[in-house]
Design brief:
This protein is of the alpha/beta class and about 425 residues long. The protein folds into two domains: about 260 residues, no CATH class; about 140 residues, GMP Synthetase, Chain A, domain 3. It contains 15 helices and 14 strands. Strands 1, 2, 3, 4, 5, 6, 7, 8 and 9 form a nine-stranded mixed beta sheet that branches. Strands 10, 11, 12, 13 and 14 form a five-stranded mixed beta sheet that branches. A hairpin with a 2-residue loop joins β8 and β9. α5 packs across α9 and α11 crosses α12. The protein is globular and about 100 Å long.
Length: about 425
């Protein structure tokens, strides 16, 4: 075989490799032909099963370190379309925007309450089956339309919208007002027949609710006036809630440029939305499942005669929660013990905060308050919702030798009859800086 023939063969091979290597830049998958989704929302459609909304940034907008949130907001695009499935809607939107929608950077998935009440397992399974979707995507159930939630999700302090969505994973750990829940965690919970599921509860803040109400008035749209479920979204003053014991998304007093807020948790029985938890109930849940670093609790001030005066304390767990489940007469008896430390944040005149009697009085009041809130919370999720979202079932498994025995016990129904024994061991450490006034 001559050297010239070998050279020709080598040249042809290199030519084929060169052509294949660079031909991808001319396909539809190149960067300039992709639209990367920041967030996705799903509502009940008017003309079809669902209305899918996608939020993304313009590909030609590159934010520098000096860019402002308002500049980022102007580069955010939100489009929606109706279809019978998620991917049919995405295909419809592909044709509209002229680019291929890519979900690999989607940070948040929002379902409206109306849609979630009919079950979301098909949508969760379908998205988890897509290689582009990250299991770490935040899952939010919105008390308003998912489209309205996304359209009002403009960054406030953060420079970029994506940075705001990233705060979801840490905010709940130091406030306790909601828990970070991802679609991967929700997907896993669907396979656990004895455990319920939760999601972040979102809605519009007071500013956005007022604007939304004004827009409805301008359009003479009064069809929702009889819908008590969404009355908190109409911006009426009497629906504003201050007490965290009743606080949920869509009824707070928060005002600000960013029109969304996250307070409380949505509770699911399997894949169907069955209820919601307030901010304080979310704190109880996080304390039990050991997902809370610290939070502020407000109690009636035990050092003053005025019952209207409140005392705020910063509490933080010192040990993991201790849970024990006994089965007697086919009824679960669940005991729960929490160990916490607390710092006093509210300071009053003429009080020695290093006095043991003062600290003991505060500790007793805080213990009583938390025990009451935890008991009310456990009663609500077991008796009213009948869903074990705290995974007590994992502690009950040791009482059963085989899987058939466990399945015949029917934990889901037995949990509705469960009794609870709650104890809290709280050590009030005095104040943070000032010890005597």
């Amino acid at each position: 075989m001559s050297k010239s023939f070998i050279s020709i063969i080598v040249f042809l091979v290199l030519l084929v490799i060169f052509i294949n290597g660079f031909s991808a830049s001319y396909t539809s998958r190149q960067l300039g032909n992709l639209a990367y989704v920041l967030a996705m929302g799903i509502d009940v459609g008017e003309n079809s099963k669902m209305k899918v909304s996608v939020q993304f940034t313009k590909t030609n907008s590159v934010s520098s370190s000096s860019s402002s949130s308002s500049e980022d907001s102007s580069n955010v695009v939100l489009v929606s379309g109706e279809a019978d499935s998620i991917f049919s809607a995405i295909n419809l939107l592909n044709s509209y925007i002229g680019k291929e929608i890519n979900l690999s950077h989607c940070s948040i998935l929002v379902f409206s309450e109306d849609f979630a009440r009919n079950g979301i397992s098909t949508e969760i399974y379908s998205l988890m089956n897509n290689e582009e979707v990250r299991p770490t995507t935040n899952l939010v159930i919105s008390k308003c339309d998912a489209y309205d939630y996304l359209s009002n999700s403009n960054p406030n302090i953060e420079k970029l919208t994506t940075q705001y969505y990233e705060t979801f994973s840490i905010t709940g750990r130091f406030t306790g007002y909601f828990s970070h829940v991802t679609i991967g965690e929700f997907f896993n919970s669907l396979s656990e027949k004895s455990s319920g599921s939760t999601a972040i509860l979102g809605g519009l803040n007071a500013t956005a609710r007022k604007e939304n109400s004004n827009n409805k008035s301008d359009n003479s749209s009064k069809d929702d006036s009889s819908n008590s479920t969404n009355s908190s979204e109409l911006g009426e003053n009497e629906n504003v809630v201050i007490n965290p014991e009743n606080l949920i998304a869509g009824n707070s007093s928060v005002t600000g440029k960013r029109g969304t807020e996250n307070f409380g948790l949505a509770v699911f029985n399997n894949d169907v939305l069955c209820g919601e938890l307030t901010a304080v109930e979310s704190i109880c849940h996080l304390l039990i499942v050991n997902e809370l670093d610290s939070c502020i609790i407000s109690i009636d001030n035990p050092l003053l005669e005025d019952e209207a005066e409140k005392m705020e304390l910063l509490i933080f767990p010192t040990k993991k929660s201790k849970i024990n489940v006994d089965i007697k007469d086919d009824i679960p008896h669940i005991s729960l013990k929490l160990s916490l430390d607390a710092d006093i944040m509210t300071i009053n005149n003429n009080i020695d905060y290093e006095d043991e009697n003062v600290l003991l009085k505060i500790s007793d009041s805080l213990n009583k308050y938390l025990k009451t809130q935890l008991t009310n919370y456990l009663t609500k999720v077991s008796k009213e919702y009948g869903v074990d979202i705290d995974s007590f079932s994992t502690k009950a498994l040791s009482h059963f030798s085989t899987i058939p025995e466990w399945e015949s016990f029917d934990w889901n129904n037995k949990f509705k009859e469960a009794t609870f024994d709650v104890s809290t061991d709280i050590n009030v450490l005095s104040t943070m800086l000032i010890t005597k006034t």
